[in-house]
Amino acid sequence: MSNADLRSIIDNVLTCPQRADIAALLAPPDAWAVSLETAQLLAGLIERLGPQSVLEFGAGRSSLVLASALQTGSGGRLTSIEHQPAYAQQSWRKMTRFPAVDANLVHAGLDVRFSKHGLLHEYVGIETALRSRGPFGFVFIDAPPGERGRDATLLQAAPFLTASAVVVLDDATRPRERTAMRRWARALNVEPVFESETVGRGVAVLRVRHAASATFSLRTFIGTIHDRIVERRFRQPSDTVD
């Protein structure tokens, strides 16, 4: 499938009427939950693309949306990485509604780790789960919390993705998420397909071509160290160096 074909699917999904089934999965309202617009985009993409294995960073009601979309198709695997699983427990109790979905909630702490990319907030100990449950054809990134940066998510997932995997990034208009996308572009063969400031809280759809171990970038290395210095000094980072 070409990027033009994927963009056509996205445009088609975004013009569909509001879906009552998706709205029901998000009820009652929660400021931290994925927006209805983004949820409908996620569901529509999975139903049309048919990935066999989906990876999610940041579990919760979005997990139900992803599982519901897999159930609508031929089923599949859902792997959700979460550092605060208590937040997601209420939603995950409802996973029995989707018997065709092999859903696994992975509790993984966050820690600042040093690597060839510099200093990043990484999920600890997720490689075994990613290796055993991948390769992933679809990734939804809605964590860690924005102030910690989401750079490490795709860098950690890259070796476990299918060719031309589709990635959806939530909150994509915020400065830290914009920085993460620039860093991914330098480290991985990432192609932007769609970006919007008006869908939900801002969303971007990317494709990772021929995923493999991410390459070194001096600019990213220096930028991530700068981020951690700012965090230590002010405890509430605002500016980033990408």
Description:
The chain is an alpha/beta fold. The chain has one domain (3-234): 3-Layer(aba) Sandwich (Rossmann fold). Helix content is 40%, strand content 25%. The strands form 2 sheets. A 7-stranded mixed beta sheet has the order 3-2-1-6-7-9-8, with helices on both faces. A two-stranded antiparallel sheet has the order 4-5. It is globular and about 45 Å long. The two termini are 31 Å apart.
Strand numbers in spatial order across the main sheet: 3-2-1-6-7-9-8
Q: What's the CATH class, please?
A: Alpha Beta
Shape: globular
- The end-to-end span amounts to 31 Å
Which structural category fits the helices and strands? Answer: alpha/beta
Overall number of domains: 1
Strand elements, count: 9
What share of the residues does DSSP label as strand, in percent?
15-25%
Please work out how many helical segments DSSP would assign: 9
Uncertain parts: none
Mean pLDDT rating:
93
CA-atom Rg in angstroms: 17 Å
Helix-strand pattern, N to C?
HHHEHEHEEEHEHEHEEH
What is the architecture at the second tier of CATH? 3-Layer(aba) Sandwich
What's the CATH H-level superfamily name?
Answer: Vaccinia Virus protein VP39
